[in-house]
Each structure stands twice: as C-alpha cells, then as structure tokens.
Design goal:
Blueprint (H helix, E strand, L loop, with lengths): L14 H20 L6 E2 L9 H4 L1 H11 L4 E2 L9 E2 L13 E7 L16 H13 L3 E5 L10 H17 L17 E6 L2 E6 L7 E4 L5 E6 L4 E2 L1 E4 L3 E5 L11 E7 L7 H6 L7
Helix pairs in contact: 1-3, 4-5
Amino acid sequence: MDWHHPDGVRCAEDEGARRRFIKYIHGQIRELMTNYGKVDILWYDVNWPLSVEGWESAKMNRMVRKLQPDIIINDRSGLPEDFSTPEQHITAESRGRAWEACMTMNESWGYHKADDAWKTPKQIIRNLITCARDGGNYLLNIGPKADGSVPEESIRILNTVGQWMDKYGETIYGAEPCEVKHSLFANFTRKGTTLFVHVHFWPGEQWAISGLQTKVKSARLLPRGERVEFEQNDFRVRFKGLPVKAPDELVSVLELECDSIPRQDTMFVRKNMPRKRV
C-alpha cells in the first residue's frame, strides 16, 4: 500500500484505479530491485485493500526473483514465499519454515508520545530467548520521533538488553531449535548438545528441571563458568549449592553439557505441574 497515491484506497472498488496503481507499485518494486545493487530481503508490509490476485503478487514476485536471484521474500504479498511474519505474538512455524516475530517496544509502531506501555528489558530478553529456542528471529521495532531521534526510553531499554547480550549472546546467536521447553521458572536454548537454561524467576539455592531425558555431563553458571553441583535420575536434574539470589537481575543462565541432543519428556512434566486449587 502507498497511502499517498490517489488510487491507493479506491483501487479496491475501481478496476481502472487498480490497474494504474498496480503499474505504479510494480514499477516501484522494479526500481528498488535494480537501482541499489544486491538486495537480501524484500519485506512487504500492508497488503490491504487488495487480494493476491488484485496485487498480481505472483507476477510481481517472479519479476523480483529474476532481478535478484538470491533474495528472500516475506509472506505479506499474500503468498507464502520464503518466511512468515507473525505480528505482536510469537508463533513458531512447523517443518523448518523460516519465521520472525515482529513486535513493538510499547504498543505503537510509530512514535506515540502518550504510549507509556513499554516492555521491560526482561520481557524483551524473554521474547528473544523464545524466538531463538524455536528457530526464529525477533524483529523489534523502534518508533523514531519526528526529528529522527530515538525515544529515550527505547535507548534505555535497548542498552540494558545489549548489556545482557554482551554477557550471554553466545546462548542466542546461532542457537538451534530446542525440544526442551517446559519449566515454570526458566526457558531454554540449544547449540548442538549444549543446553542453556535461562532462569527468569530464580528459585534459590536448589532447584530442578523435570523430564530431561538426556544425561548431563557438566553444569556451569555463566558468564564466568563456575561449576555447579548436580544430581540426575530418571525424573529430573537437581542443581545444588547455587546462590540464594539471582546472579543476574534480568535472566541468569546455566550451561549444561549433555551427552546427546537434549530432549524432554513433556508428558512427565505436565503430569507433575502444580495444580491450582478450585
């Protein structure tokens, strides 16, 4: 959609307007694909008010791939193409399809002076961990002010998240899809046979992960790598001698070296989850 074009809105009801608008839009896309060197990603956004047929999306994307053979295209032309873009929620794709969750830092995509519903750095870190765990990207939006500057609250939040990433980025970048997902106080990422336990509600000196079906060879507390005592049976891995208070006020991380790709018995976890009293 081009909100400034005179045919942009009426193209849905007027075939002549639609043809003019499509000629214009396809021309814009051709210009972008030819005037600026190699383009990696084409990220369509609002496909209102036309259908796939109305936009002539198949024709448009064939042109794009002819001009930029190595490009990847998102799903917002109305066709699935290369990757999915769930908005304001995290929903992983199945069967290995690429995806990225698109979310705002507060509740507005553009700058909104009155919108004070800012996500905390901890919320953003937890979203990032979930995306990495399930094999996706986290697209995090900033709404600049009218003069192009970044809002002070956005800067504060991003700096805090960046400081956390300076310490624990190895647990996020290059992470592979992880089958260990269930815990009341933690989330997980994986690289090979290494399982990272991201503890967002620190339980104290002793706590356990239920249903882990993979033998743990060693446990360390990041970022410094101090060894952590643990014991493991068929039902859980219990960690002992940990700090009473969370080592990191945002999200603390344990690194577990396993003897194979870590897996979890989800049925065991569900059966042993605490039940609310009625």
